[in-house]
Amino acid sequence: MTLIQPHGNIDLQPRFIADLHTRDLEIIRAKTLKQIPITPMALGDLMMLGMGAFSPLTGFMGRDDWHSVCTDMTLVNKIFWPIPITCTVAAEIADTISINEEICLIDPQHPDTPLAILKVSEKYQIDKTAECQAIFATADPKHPGVQQQMQNSGVNLAGAVQVLATTDLLTPLQAREKFTQAGWSTIAAFQTRNPMHRSHEFIAKFALQLCDGLFIHSILGAVKADDIPPALCSQAITALIDSYFPKNKVIQAGYPMAMRYAGPREALLHALFRQNYGCSHILIGRDHAGVGDYYDHYAAQEIFSQIPADSMAIQTIKVAESFWCDRCEQMTFATSCPHGAHYHTKISGTELRRKLKENLEISNHFSRREVVQILQQGIKVA
User: Fold this and answer.
1) CATH code at position 221
2) What total number of domains does the chain contain?
3) Cα–Cα nearest to 289, from 213, 224, 203, 374
4) Any catalytic annotation for residue 359?
5) DSSP per-residue codes, 170-190
6) Pairing of strands 34-37, 102-107
7) Rounded to whole angstroms, how far apart are CA atoms 263 and 321?
8) Starting from the edge strand earliest in sequence, which strands make up the sheet with 187-192, in order?
């Protein structure tokens, strides 16, 4: 069984230091370097670079790549890339750093633990409003992604990284090994930041009719304050898989990237790094990676038809809105159900979060009992 090639048709480029002795020595050296705190967004992206999930990138983007990605969705070398991967620090910190200097990146929450060594090839400032307009299609400060970007104003540091941190998360290389061992060549990726409700379950099982296996891949990085905690989501998804999916057809994992809520552009990034994991397909549904009313319901599907056909090798499985129909007595798609809206139970992550927050009854048509019990208990404890 042959898996899809990584993005850019080159080998994966993990930036973790594989040799433990070398890593130990580099950690000692990193502690002698200038200690530079990074944002939660940059931390998540750093770990994605370490895992090789952002291959062919080997570090944070310079100005030319940043500008090309914002305007044309390609790197300078013409490889497709939809969202800038940058490391922003305060201007007063950037002023202390020289070009070609090696610095130690740290998480301000854990300042004694070196995360990575960055050799600074470039320092540059950007127009944050222009970046937000390009990536989020809005500069509205109420948009959570815009708000996050505007708070991170400063100077971007570019350069290759050596990642000293480690992870227990499934890496692209490990995922590819698992897919091969399972005998899969076609794998559908299911992206989620929410616990899986009945609509999610329905479209995920639909994908299993088309592919050898299903890769349920949950975000574990920073999310909005009103989102359900990623660890709790993961626990609920495990319960769903154990009870309602066929054995040996599903692999569940998490990834450390922070959520950007960039709608169509983020859907493209989700597809790109799932190709690096070995997925041949990705499910793209209603409001993928969206937030509020900033994007049309199917904008994330439409953007795949607007980019050049050779941008990525991964293919999309585009699914319509799904819901429970009392007349059909089953989950169904809007494209195949003839019955009126009064028969339908509309299902969404937003509505699930509202019901949990207000301690409202959640029917089995909306979400499986096993999932609801875990979420209710987890939220009560929190």
Assistant:
1) 3.40.50.620
2) 2
3) 224
4) no
5) PPHHHHHHHHHHHT-S-EEEE
6) parallel
7) 16
8) 250-255, 213-219, 187-192, 281-284, 315-318
On whether residue 15 sits in a domain, the answer given is: no
The boundaries of the domain holding residue 99 are 20-163
C-alpha–C-alpha distance, residues 113 and 90, integer Å? 20
Tens of pLDDT, residues 134-166? 999 999 999 999 999 998 879 999 999 999 999
Examine the domain organization and report whether 239 and 368 are in the same domain: yes
Residue 211, SS3 per DSSP:
coil
pLDDT of 341-363, one tens digit each?
A: 999 999 988 899 899 989 999 99
Q: Which of 152, 156, 194, 276 is catalytic?
A: 194
In the numeric block, which tokens belong to residue 234? 């993961």
Neighbours of 79 (CB within 10 A): 18
- Are 226 and 112 in the same domain? no
Domain boundary (110, 140, 163) is at: 163
Distance between terminal CA atoms of the chain?
A: 45
In a shared domain, residues 198 and 66: no
Report angle CA 288, 145, 348 to the nearest 5 degrees: 35
Q: 180 and 103 in one domain?
A: no
Q: 261 burial class (0-12, 13-18, 19+ CB within 10 angstroms)? A: buried
Q: Any catalytic annotation for residue 194?
A: yes
Q: Give the active site residue among 176, 193, 286, 368.
A: 193
Of 163, 197, 226, the position where a domain reaches its end is 163
How far are the Cα atoms of 88, 207, 220, 263, 277 from residue 260, in angstroms, in the given order? Answer: 15, 25, 13, 8, 20
